[in-house]
Every structure is written in structure tokens, then in C-alpha cells.
Specification:
Order of helices and strands: HHEEHHEE
Number of strands: 4
Strand order of the largest sheet: 1-2
Helix content: 40-55%
CATH class of the domain at 28-91: Mainly Alpha
Structural class: mainly alpha
CATH architecture of the domain at 28-91: Orthogonal Bundle
Distance between the termini: 131 Å
Mean pLDDT: 84
CATH topology of the domain at 28-91: Multidrug-efflux Transporter Regulator, Chain: A, Domain 2
Radius of gyration: 37 Å
Shape: elongated
Length: about 160
């Protein structure tokens, strides 16, 4: 071997597998404003000016930092995606989108109210069943079979 040739065992570093990148997931409340407008726009695949327009139309209402910076939540980003879906894929106007969102909100309020009423009805049903059982027990204590005429029931006298 000459001086310029390298021996397979000399000058060759063994390959080291690179470590996979570490991914850290942070759970954040869906209504907490954490994304600035540029990040929210990128996540929703929109231009930041579109987000400003949607805010002006009342379709989205981002939180604000103490200095007035718009802060979008994960829920806001999901709403932006829905708006985009309704306009781009379904062909709705922004007025149509507003109407759909208003109706969905109304339906959600109705579902919540129905659930509340169902809970109230179940409580009332339990209370009525308990009261009915009390009445049955009081009747059992006050009524005794009357043997002279068969199986008729008579009220027990309080005075002997």
C-alpha cells in the first residue's frame, strides 16, 4: 500500500445512527389563546389578512394579549378550518357561513337545555317514586283486612 491509499481499518469512522428527534407534546386548553395571527393563519392554511377580515365580520373572536396582540386558540384554528371548508368546498358566502355557525350554536344550546331538563325529569321521577313508596307504607300501616265480609279493607280506627 502506498502512503496515499488508506487501509480499510484506518481513517474510516464507524457509522453512528443519529438519534431520532424528540417530540414534545403539550396539552393546552382548546379555548386558550396561544397562537399569534401568523401561526394561526399557517395552521388554518389562510392568509393573515383573511383572519382579520373574518374577525371584522364577527366569524371569529380571538383573545387579546395585554398589549392587544391577537391570540388564537386551537378551537379558533378549528373554526377557521371549518369556515374555509364551508366557503371553498361548499361554496357558501360568509353570510351563509355566519348563519350556519349561528344555527349550530343554537342547536348546541338546545342540546344542553334538553340534557338539563332530562336530569330534572329524572330527579322528579325519583322523588315521586320515593313519595309514592311513603304513601304505600302509610296505607299498609292504616289498612287491615276485614274478615267479616271477606277481603274488604277498612280504615283502622285511631281510638280503641
Amino acid at each position: 500500500m502506498t502512503a496515499h491509499e488508506s487501509h480499510p481499518s484506518h481513517g474510516v469512522q464507524p457509522r453512528v445512527k443519529p438519534k431520532p428527534p424528540t417530540v414534545t407534546r403539550i396539552e393546552v386548553e382548546t379555548d386558550r389563546g396561544v397562537f399569534m395571527i401568523s401561526v394561526a393563519a399557517e395552521l388554518a392554511n389562510m392568509h393573515p389578512q383573511t383572519l382579520r377580515m373574518y374577525e371584522a365580520r364577527g366569524l371569529i373572536e380571538p383573545k387579546r394579549s395585554p398589549k392587544g396582540t391577537r391570540l388564537y386558540s386551537q378551537g379558533d384554528v378549528e373554526r377557521l378550518r371549518r369556515i374555509h371548508e364551508m366557503t371553498a368546498e361548499l361554496g357558501l358566502s360568509l353570510a351563509g357561513v355566519q348563519r350556519v355557525l349561528d344555527l349550530e350554536s343554537e342547536v348546541q344550546r338546545m342540546h344542553t337545555r334538553i340534557e338539563e331538563l332530562e336530569v330534572q325529569a329524572l330527579r322528579a321521577q325519583v322523588q315521586l317514586a320515593e313519595e309514592l313508596e311513603k304513601v304505600r307504607r302509610s296505607f299498609r300501616a292504616e289498612l287491615v283486612p276485614y274478615r267479616a265480609t271477606g277481603t274488604q279493607l277498612v280504615r283502622r280506627s285511631r281510638f280503641p
